[in-house]
Design goal:
Elements: E1 6-7, E2 10-11, H1 13-35, H2 50-55, H3 57-68, H4 74-85, H5 102-105, H6 108-112, H7 115-131
Antiparallel strand pairs: 1-2
Length: 135
């Protein structure tokens, strides 16, 4: 992101419009393309929502491994458990850390944005919100 788009450490309104429109258009294009895949390709596609992964990491991961035809090994479960426990460690505020409390950040964007920003996001992302079945 260019520094010129920041004002007092935040994106300017015109840049919020531009970035949100660009991101949501890309997601919309991808979801629309998926809907038009030939039937032969459907068994090779799986939609995974971030919130599903965050809320049930082990089961979603098991399902992904099963979908890909890869055995789910104990090492994978150990890694999941280690990272689930890492949610309680210090250093989570470190922007360079790979540790995140994913369930805590799941909806943070809603609380960190102004009401005006949320309206912009909702207006540009309405087609994506509908396609994904959100209210």
């Amino acid at each position: 992101m260019r520094r010129s788009t920041l004002k007092n450490g935040k994106l300017r309104e015109k840049d919020i419009h531009r970035h949100t429109r660009r991101i949501c258009n890309r997601i919309h294009d991808n979801l629309t393309a998926i809907k038009h895949l030939p039937a032969d390709f459907i068994p090779y596609y799986k939609l995974v929502k971030f919130e599903d992964l965050v809320q049930d990491l082990e089961n979603v991961t098991r399902n992904l491994y099963r979908f890909a035809g890869i055995p789910f090994k104990k090492e994978v479960l150990d890694w999941i458990e280690m990272n689930e426990q890492a949610r309680n460690v210090s250093g989570q505020g470190d922007p360079y850390s790979t540790l995140r409390n994913s369930s805590a950040v799941l909806n943070n964007w809603k609380w960190e944005r102004s009401k005006d920003d949320l309206k912009i996001i909702e207006s540009h992302c309405a087609p994506v919100i509908d396609l994904l079945g959100y209210d």
